[in-house]
Design a protein that fits this description.
The protein is of the alpha+beta class. The protein has 12 helices and 4 strands; from the N terminus they run H-H-H-H-H-E-E-H-H-H-H-H-E-E-H-H.
Length: 473
């Protein structure tokens, strides 16, 4: 088609190739930034599985961690390497990276050809042309800047998701660990109520107690068995929740862990300047800022395209009666009906929406971190009170009850009741410690830059000790 007699077409083709260039999409674009961000904020490593040989090495690492006694740190690392929901989130980076590359590309030139047959015979008339959207060239830098802002928002959201997964794993770990400890204490309660019931049956057979007394002890025993069954069912559910977060299945679900919650540490977390620290670190707010920047740039693009109609430049060549003619061509739309007013209004409305959302999220975050800090302080005080006051007091009551029983000043039921109340205090200590570690995890999640879904609602928990105080005599 192109010959020496068509220099305009050659020049336009060369210009298009020069401007368009050759672009490729990086395989893991943006992930190194996410990897560094997560490591700096959590101390853990993330990897992007892409069906390569590296995946097998990650599987071996996960299995090696599962063979050891599970800790909160190892559980988090397993999840960050193995959770497939998180792996799916990484693909948002791939989409945003592809959009960024696409924004840097020019629209493809349009080639056209016509053939005109001469009446009566002779050589046909030929018409060739190639056109390029001029606006695609003019607005390429602005399109690319919008895509860069959207790519930054994608990186920030992916990093925030990884941090959220880490916090969820810690929470699930402590919850299941509390289940194990609660189950052991409730088994002790079942043994204690069984002993009390046996004593009541012996006394009833000897005529030394009433039927009412026997029924009370029987009711306490059955309630204890019911609580134990509920706790065991909850433990199964919570273990499976942790399995899902870690992304394990088949033989991988056979892992072990310590059965006792860690004690509340003697040192208090630094709760100073929480609002500023949370606002500065929060990745969701950073992503919203990137969204707002992209929307503002998009609104500017809408303004400019409203003023400039679609405009195409090109060149054409025509052969008529055996001779070639070549020259430039131009085409543009006439904005009679659509002048871009709706597109511009929508673009500015999106900017205003994101601005208000950013402000609202900031207010929410400040409230969340204040509530989280208070909850850490409150649960720590409660756990220490149970440990330092309630448990020692219950232990002294049991010891004194034993002495009084030996001196025949108290009955066996009084001692058994004191022992049940001591177990209930131990259950309360387990619950307050679990609440403390959950509160601490959620506060750390906020300070690491992620935002919990809901800081207001309290998680449903087993009503430990319900009915167990009814055995007083």
């Amino acid at each position: 088609m192109i010959t020496k007699s068509r220099p305009h077409l050659i020049a336009l083709g060369g210009l298009v190739l020069l401007l368009g260039g050759c672009a490729s999409v990086p395989q893991k674009g943006g992930f190194e930034e996410v990897k560094t961000e997560v490591a700096n904020r959590t101390g853990h490593r993330v990897e992007w599985r892409q069906s390569s040989d590296e995946d097998q090495a990650l599987d071996r690492e996960v299995n090696a961690l599962l063979e050891k006694s599970l800790t909160p740190e190892s559980a988090v690392q397993i999840a960050l390497l193995n959770n497939r929901h998180l792996q799916a989130t990484y693909e948002e980076l791939g989409i945003a990276q592809a959009n960024l590359v696409q924004a840097g590309l020019l629209s493809n030139p349009i080639f056209s050809a016509e053939i005109g047959f001469v009446e009566g015979g002779g050589s046909p008339d030929l018409l060739f042309g190639v056109t390029q959207n001029f606006l695609s060239i003019l607005f390429q830098p602005l399109r690319k800047s919008i895509a860069e802002a959207e790519f930054a928002a994608a990186r920030q959201r992916v990093a925030a998701q990884a941090i959220s997964i880490a916090a969820d794993v810690c929470d699930a770990y402590y919850r299941f660990q509390a289940d194990l400890q609660v189950g052991e204490l409730l088994r002790q309660t079942v043994k204690a109520t069984a002993a009390s019931l046996e004593a009541a049956q012996t006394l009833r057979e000897a005529g030394n107690t009433t039927a009412l007394q026997l029924y009370r002890e029987q009711a306490l025993h059955e309630e204890a068995r019911l609580l134990l069954a509920g706790a065991e069912g909850q433990a199964v559910a919570d273990r499976e929740h942790l399995n899902r977060l870690m992304g394990v299945w088949d033989k991988q679900v056979v892992w072990r862990m310590p059965t006792r919650l860690p004690d509340v540490p003697s040192g208090m977390l630094d709760l100073t300047d929480l609002e500023r620290r949370a606002i500065t670190a929060n990745l969701h707010l950073q992503a919203l800022r990137s969204d707002l920047l992209a929307a503002a740039r998009r609104a500017g693009l809408a303004d400019r395209t409203d003023l400039i109609p679609d405009f195409e430049i090109g060149a054409g060549a025509e052969r008529e009666e055996g001779a070639w003619d070549a020259g430039p061509s131009v085409a543009f739309t006439l904005p009679f009906f659509d002048q871009g007013q709706a597109r511009k209004a929508a673009a500015y409305a999106e900017v205003r929406r994101l601005r208000q959302t950013y402000y609202a999220k900031g207010v929410d975050l400040r409230s969340m971190v204040r509530a989280a800090g208070h909850r850490v302080f409150n649960t720590r005080q409660r756990a220490l009170h149970v440990a330092n006051v309630v448990l020692p007091l219950r232990s002294r009551i049991v010891n004194e009850s034993q002495l009084q029983l030996n001196a025949m000043q108290l009955g066996v039921f009084d001692l058994l009741t004191a022992e049940r109340q001591q177990i209930n205090a131990a259950l309360e200590y387990v619950e307050t410690r679990r609440e403390y570690w959950e509160a601490r995890t959620r506060l750390q999640q906020i300070l690491n830059g992620s935002m919990p879904m809901d800081m207001d609602g309290e998680d449903a928990s087993l009503a430990l000790g319900t009915g167990m105080e009814a055995g007083g005599h």
